[in-house]
Write a structure and sequence with these properties.
Blueprint: H1 11-16, H2 19-35, H3 54-66, H4 73-81, H5 86-98, H6 116-138, H7 160-172, H8 174-179, E1 186-188, E2 201-203, H9 204-215, E3 219-222, H10 229-239, H11 249-272, H12 287-300, E4 305-309, H13 315-322, H14 327-332, E5 338-339, E6 353-359, E7 364-370, H15 380-395, E8 403-410, H16 411-416, H17 418-424, E9 438-443, H18 452-455, E10 472-476, H19 480-497, E11 501-506, H20 524-531, H21 536-546, H22 552-573, E12 578-579, H23 608-618, H24 632-647, E13 649-650, H25 652-665, E14 669-674, E15 689-690, E16 698-699, E17 712-716, H26 722-734, E18 738-743, H27 754-761, H28 764-768, E19 775-777, H29 794-799, H30 816-823, E20 827-829, H31 834-846, E21 853-855, E22 869-870, E23 883-884, H32 889-892, E24 899-903, H33 907-917, E25 924-929, E26 931-933, H34 937-946, E27 951-956, H35 965-981, E28 990-994, H36 999-1008
Parallel strand pairs: 4-7, 4-8, 5-12, 8-9, 9-11, 10-11, 14-17, 14-18, 18-19, 19-21, 20-21, 24-25, 24-27, 27-28
Antiparallel strand pairs: 1-2, 3-10, 6-7, 13-22, 15-16, 20-26, 23-25
Helix pairs in contact: 2-6, 6-9, 11-12, 11-21, 11-22, 12-19, 15-26, 17-26, 23-24, 23-25, 25-31, 26-27, 33-36, 34-35
The structure holds thiamine diphosphate and magnesium ion.
Amino acid sequence: MYLKPGRLGPAIVMKSLTTIDITRRSLQITKALSATKDRSANLKVESFANGSNASYIERLYRKWSKDPNSVDESWHNYFTGKRRTIKQDRQLKTKHRKWEPTAVGTGGSTTTPAPAADWKYIDDHLVVQAIIRAYQTRGHLAADLDPLGIVGPTGHTPSTEDRKLQATKAVLRQHYSYAFNDLNALFKLPTTTLIGGDEQFLPLREILDRLERAYCGHIGVEYMMITSILKSTWIRQHFEVPGAINFSAEEKKLILERLTRSSGFENFLAKKYSSEKRFGLEGCDIMIPIMKEIIDQSSKLGVESVHIGMAHRGRLNVLANVCRKPLDELLSQFNSIKATDRGSGDVKYHLGLFTKRYNRQSKKDVRITVVANPSHLEFVNPVVLGKARAEMFMRGDYQGNKVLPVLIHGDASFCGQGVVYESIHLTDLPAYTTYGTIHVVVNNQVGFTTDPRFSRSSRYCTDVARVVNAPIFHVNADDPEACVHCARVAAKWRAKYHRDVVIDIVGYRRNGHNEADEPAFTQPLMYQRIRNLKPCTVKYAEKLVHDGVIKMEEYTEMTAKYEKICNEAFEKSQKIKTFKNSQWIDSPWSGYFQGRNRLKMCPTGVNLKTLMYIGNKFASPPPTENKFTVHKGIMRILGIRKKMVEDKIADWSLGEAFAIGTLVKDGIHVRISGQDVERGTFSHRHHVLHDQTKDKVRYNSLQHLYPDQAPYDVCNSSLSECAVMGFDLGYSMANPNTLVIWEAQFGDFANTAQAIIDQFVASGETKWVRQSGLVLFLPHSMEGMGPEHSSGRIERFLQLSNDDPDCFPVMCDSDYVARQLLNCNWIVTNLTTPANLFHAMRRQVGMSFRKPLINFSPKSLLRHPLARSPFRDFNECSSFQRIIPDKGKASHNPECVEQLILCSGKVYYDLVKERDDHDQEATTAIVRVEQICPFPYDLIYKQLELYPKADLFWVQEEHKNQGAWTYVQPRLDTVLIELKANECDAPSKCQLIIIWSSPVARRSVICDR
Ligand SMILES: Cc1ncc(C[n+]2csc(CCOP(=O)(O)OP(=O)(O)O)c2C)c(N)n1
Ligand SMILES: [Mg+2]
C-alpha cells in the first residue's frame, strides 16, 4: 500500500483503504495526471491529478491531515470522499466473502461476485506483475549485449537474430498492448521487484522504462532459475534498484587506466612482434579491468589467495596486468631464449605463474596463481579447483573465505567441452566444493573460425552453468562500467553466498584467431563491421572526456605513460639471454626443496607395535560410547581383520590401511577420491561404516588413530573421471606433504580422463617443472569383463613413459634407484602383495621429490589367500620390492632351472598354481616385475645372471598388443645385449607367452615348456 505503516501515522486510513481502492485511486490520479503538464511545487494549487508518485501523495496526505484546506480541492475530495470507516470496510469484506467462488469438490459456500470494476484493477495489477516477471525472466533475451550489433536491438541490418530480438521485446510488453491504453496509469509495485527504489508506486511508462534499463540494457541477467527468494532479491538489489550502477569519478578513471593498460599491452606487442602469435584480447579488452575488480573486491572481502585458470586468449595480458609479472621477463619470452634448468617448457601463452602482490584497493597482500595449462582447452578447470580446495584445506579455510578460484573461458570451449560440465558439477559436493567459483567468459562470438550457430545448440555459451543455478551476467564488452559492475557484483555474490557465478563478456575478436590468421576468409561481414569499430578504450576515454570526468590530455598522458613502461621493459628484455622454467612455476612449494638431497630415499618400513596398533583400530567397530549399530556383514569383516592382526598377516585392505595409518601418523594428509572409494568397488575397503539405525551417522576408524594425526579423507566422487582426476591432480600440486590417490572404478574408465593423463600427469613436470605425487589406482586383470573392460590399459601408460628402452643404465651408481625415479616422468607398478602396496604408497612421500604413480590394482587378488603379506614384510628392515624374485626350490638350485618366467601382477598366482600342480618348482623360476617403469634393469640383469641355463619368457594374460609386453621386450633385449657384452650366458631373446584366465591355457604354458 502506498500508505506506509509506521511512516504515515493515521492508522484509520491504512485500515480503510483496500488494494482495490488504492489501485483505482492511482489510476484515476495518473489519468488526470496525463492531462496536465504543470508540476507546480505549490501543493495548495496542484491538482490531485498532478501527483505522480507515492511519496508525493504521502506528503499531500500529511499536509491535508493537518489542514484540509492546504491542498487542492481535488485532493481534498479524494482524501475525504474515499475514506471509509472501519465499519464500512468490514461491510466491504463481508460483501466480498459472499461472492467467493465455490471451491471445486470442497463444498465451499456460494457467493456473489464483486463489482466488475474491482476485478479490473486486480487484473491490471496482475498484468503489470506479469510484465515485471517477464522482464526478470526473459529480459536478457532482449538485452543490448553485442557491441558489433550483429545480434541486438542496434542491429544495422534486420537479421534473423534481430527479428528474434524484436519479437522478444514485443513478448515482454505484450500484455501492455492489449491491457492498457494509458502509459501514465500508476501502479503499486509488487514486492518481487526493486525497480521503484524508495517508491512504491510508479506510472506504467516508468515501470517499463526501468525494467528495460535494468534488464535490456548492456547487461542481461539470468537469475530467475535461482529458487531462493533471498538470493534473487539480492541480485535485484544489485541490478534493479535505480542507480545500482554507480561509479565515482575516481573509479571511472581507474577503469579507464586499466583499460588503457589492457589495450596498450596488446598494441605494444602488435607493434613489436607483429608476426608472433600472442592470442590478443582486443575486442574484449575489458577482461583485464574485470579481473582486477574481482581481485580488488574479493580482497576487500577477505580473500587472500586467488587461483586463476585460463587458456590462450589474453593470457599474456593477464600475466602482465593482473599478476604484474615483470614485463621484461615476459617480453623476453618472445626472444627465443634458452632455459637453463630442467623442463621442456611450453609456449609462452601457456605458462603458469605464482606471485604475491600488494593490492592498493584493499590495502592487503594477495597471492595470485595462474595455473599452467596445456593446449587442451578447459582441462585446466578441475586442476585449478583441486588446487584451490587443497589450499583451503591447508589454511583451515573451511568456507572458502580466503581462497578464490577464478576460471576464464572462451565462448566456444565453455559450451563445447564436457570437462566444463563435469567440473561445474563438483561445486556443491562436500569433498570437492570450492565454495563458489567465479567464471569469466571471454565471449568474442567466434571459436577459431566457427560461428556460434555452428558450434552450439544452446542459446548462450554459458547455459552449462545453469545446471548449478549460477547467476549469469551477460554484459556488453563495450560498456566498461556495466562490465566492471558485473565483476563487482560477482565478487560480492561469491563472498556472500559461496556459490558459482558467471560473467559472460560479449565482445568480439579484432584480429584472426591468432594474429597471423586472416579472419575475413570465414567471417567477412563480421570483420567489415569490426574494422569500422572504434576500440572500447578510445570510446570510453571520449565518453569520460565528454562527461567532464577527465581531460583529453590526461588520457593521452595515460597512454603515453604505459607505452613508455613497455618500451623500457622491451629494452631490458633484450639483455635477457636465458631464463629458468622454474620462474614460471605455479606451485613453488617454498622451502620444500631447499637443502634437500634429492636422491635421498626415506625408509618405508615401520615397527610391529605401530602395525599392531593401527591394525587393531582398523579391525574394531566404533567405540561403544558412540552407540553405533554396525551392519552384521561388516562385523564379520572386522572379525576377519582382527584375526589377521592376531596372526600378523595382512590382506590387501589391511596393507593399504597400514600405509594410510602410518602416513597420517607422520603428519601426511591422505586423500583417496573416486567413485565409491569409501566402501571400495570390490567391497574390500570399508573405511566408512554406516550406522544401521541412524541416518548419516558414519565412522572411519582411520580418522581416529592418533590425537595429533594428519587428516584422512576418503571421498566418494561424482560419476566423473576427467574432472575428478583433474581435481585430485590439482589437490596434489598444492602441498608435497600430502598423498592424493584417485581410484578408478575399473581401470579402463580412466580413459575418459585421457587428456588429464596425457597433458598433465604424464608431461606436467617435463613442460612446467611442476611435480605431483598423485597416485592412480587402476583396477586391472583379465577377469571376465571382456578384453577392453578387464584391462586398465597398462600398455598406454607404459607407452607414455619417458625412459629410453635402448639405454642400459650405469649400475655402479649408488643412487641408481633414486636417480632412475627422479628422471622418469612417472612410476608404473603392478603389485602382487599388500606389503609392496604399503611400501609403494609410503615411498610416494618418502622420496625427496614427487612423482606420479600409476598402480594397476588387483581385483580377485584383493581376497586371494596367497596375496597376503606377513607383518615382517612391513617392518623396519623391509622396503619396496621392485621385483620379487623366486624364493622357492628353483632359486635354491638355479643351475637346474630351465625356464625363467618374468611376469607382473595377478597372473603370477595363476602361474604358481600351475607350476605347483605340475611339479615344476625346481625347473621353473617365476619372477614378479612389480615396478615396470622405470624398468628395474639392475635386478633383471641379476636374475638373468642367476639362471644361466634358462630360457627367458615374459608371460602375460593380456593380448599381445596390450599389457606390458611392448614396453618390456626392448628393455629385456637391452639387458640381454648387456649380458652378452659382459660375456655372461644368456638366452638370445625373450619369448612372449600369453595365457588367458582359463586353467587349460595356464596348464599349456607350464606343460609345454
Ligand atoms: C580440446 C581442444 N580442442 C581443440 C582445440 C583447438 N583450438 C584452439 S583455440 C580453438 C577455438 C577456441 O574458441 P574459444 O573457446 O571461443 O576461444 P577464443 O580463441 O575465441 O578466445 C580451438 C578449437 C584446443 N586447443 N583444445
Ligand atoms: Mg571465442
